[in-house]
Predict the 3D structure of the following.
Amino acid sequence: MFAVLKTGGKQYKVQAGDVLRVEKLAADAGEKIQFNDVLMVGGENTVVGAPFVEGAAVQADVIDQIKGEKLIKFVKRRRKHSSKRTVGHRQKLTLVRITDILASGADKSGVKAAIGSGSVSAPAAAAPAKPAKAAKKAVAPAADAAADDLTAITGVGPAAAKKLADAGITSYAQLAAVDVESFDAVKVKPEWVAQAADLAK
């Protein structure tokens, strides 16, 4: 019996007793783990998943946490006074021995699921923050409902309307009450005040 499993973005065809080097898993040496992403189970009856075979799993024992062969990345730019750079990298891997292939009943086995070391459950924890943002957006239009569209006044563009809003002027009535001579926060033109007074009526 064989199975095709997926882990670390790669697929492996395995049988019981096979030793694999897979992308680093969050498990210690001697632990028993289970790969639940099984794409195919073969034997007397071949089952192909869509994309995964439901209830199938591959169990394995973790032998050790190792590093792969050293890879050298060399960059050189030809020309005078050019630069060159050498960088080495050793990929972190997990050595596992396949012990069993389950065609069904994987959820009842009680064995820890194999999880990559890069997998973090932070996005799941951060999910409730989205409704809070949505709530803020829902509140904002209600606050702006009393505000008038100051860009309807000739000569007041979006930038001037923003400056007026920052100064606390959001309605025609407030703009109509502004004293052009003494108001220093924004340069208000007399025509704006006159138009605001007409629109406020």
